[in-house]
Amino acid sequence: MESKHHDPGGKRRMRLPDGVKGDAEYFGARRQYRLWLSREWGQPTDPYALWIGMNPSTADAYANDPTVAREMKFTNDALSFKRYFKVNILDYRATKPRDLALLEEPARSERNLPVIIKLAANAARIIVCHGDLHRSFQTFATETVRCLESEGHELWCLGRTLRNAAPRHPLYVKSNSPLVRF
């Protein structure tokens, strides 16, 4: 029997640390799109960091994946924030980015960019961290950055990739890497 829900692949899921509340918004006939994910280990009114990655993987309202765990650590240790939101350039859930180019449905839904803009409006810090994108998706990253900059947001990153100066992915930097202007 086929599952009603989309399987993004991957096997690495970690339970949320004690005291952390999680939430997420999905849509699609099989919940194949994730618009945002959040973690809170302070108060609901505390400032939050908004991390903008490439695409959602296995993390959900109840479990972390390695990327979300690392971003939470940066948020807590480097920024001293107790709230975290995660959005992505592409909102289709997959653990292998190369699979996104083979989809029969859009890798980025029409609902995605408006959600990013809305969450950015109240973010205390916005960190771009999508890494090197497949060339067919680069326009989505450019559009996202331009929209956020046109709204007056300062964008930060964990450094740039050597290949095309994309913002580095948090799993591929040292845990004490400083945030720099994007």
Automatic annotation (TrEMBL):
UniProt name for this protein: DUF1643 domain-containing protein
Pfam families per the UniProt record, alphabetical: DUF1643
InterPro entries found in the cross-reference section: DUF1643
Superkingdom of the source species: Bacteria
